[in-house]
Description:
22 strands, 3 domains, ten-stranded mixed β-sheet, UDP-N-acetylmuramoyl-L-alanine:D-glutamate ligase
Amino acid sequence: MxxxxxxxxxxxxxxxxxxxxxxxxxxxxxxxxxxDAKDSRxxxxxxxxxxxxxxxxxxxxxxxxxxxxxxVVSTAIRADNLELAAARARGLGVLHRAEALAALMxxxxxxxxxxxxxxxxxxxxxxxxxxxxxLDPSFAIGGDLAVAGSGAHHGAGxxxxxxxxxxxxSFLRFSPRVAVVTNVEADHLDHHGxxxxxxxxxxxxxxxxxxxGALVSCADDPGAERLAAxxxxxxxxxxxxxRTVTGGGDGVDGVTLxxxxxxxxxxxxxxxxxxxxxxxTIAVPGEHMALNSLAALLAGLELGAxxxxxxxxxxGFSGVRRRFEFKGRADGVAVYDDYAHHPTEVRAxxxxxxxxxxxxxxxxxxxxxxxRTRDFHREFGAAxxxxxxxxxxxxxxxxxxxxxxxxxALVAGAVPLPAxxxxxxxxWADVPEVVAGLASAGDLVITMGAGDVTVLGPEVLAELxxxxxxxxxxxxxxxxxxxxxx
Length: 486
């Protein structure tokens, strides 16, 4: 580990990406401090592992370690943050989160998973499959594995698996041997500006693949296929997966999805690879998840893992927190939570949710970012129409300031359902009662978005429990994990 990472202070240490870096640094013996806006389960766990974490931001937080630290920040940290400003004034080294992660990857056989959608699930599937093969990879994922309860680990093996974030171009800091691209579709235009500039970032990502490495790409996605064609034209090796893979799926250069069928709360996948057909049952529903499993399989083969072990590992994958995560059941209503925050993701997850319920499908959707809401409210409306009842919250602005005329009402107004089935509820505190009031026994409720909507599920369950004559049933809020029953 480089000397710059022997003492590290992470601003916003409780975030998914930052906490993962902190865990790996602690496991490697570094002195770690940090700060976050509030205490959380993640912060408490980091303290238990030896990190010194302050609540709130102040220049004095930089002095928690013996000696000046290197400061790590993410794009979410604004330039006027008190700690960041103090670090620059003192002349301390400041690294972007991706730079720190790239430094931790040094000396490893690196696989990076990129794409507009499916990064977290695919990275998680690949990690679990490799673990099943006994390879103990290091990993950094933007979500917590359902079984491990963590999204990062310092492994004893030579492989490092990482989710590669294109939102701010930070994936261009990595140098993978295996680069997975699940899809390429316009997003994060607040940073990239135009759809062409967004696509160009993926071309630049191809240039980061190390000599002898490969691109693993989804042949079914138009944007990813155009990228793969450009990669081949530039002399790069490409391995494809998907329904439209024909020749490659019969050899060693691709995987073909022959059939996907819903199976319980997951799906059964029939595939062809290396000239043979195989069937694997995955615990998460939806053809998009089946494609993610193929991406993980192909990346694992490229890393040298055995086919049989990878297939068994994929069958044992139990999901990722906030990816169609079962939160509980009350009064006959199943409640799930999902991170979908792009129209394509919303459409895919609602389609998958249909597979696992015989009742109605209700969605409580929280738009994420004012810029994304402004740019894609019509597409969000069309995707949300796949549900029977739609509740739209107000925008979770995250790093952005409000924009005049941009609110959740834009999305609600774009949903092509009868007025009585679309509900704009701007006051967060009112949402649990509204959702519970719409649900009936046998229905499936899914809370959806990248913001604080994730804490809505337990509130909905509590409301459902209060209205039932006998109180909440014995599974309310007790079962955890994706696909734990609908």
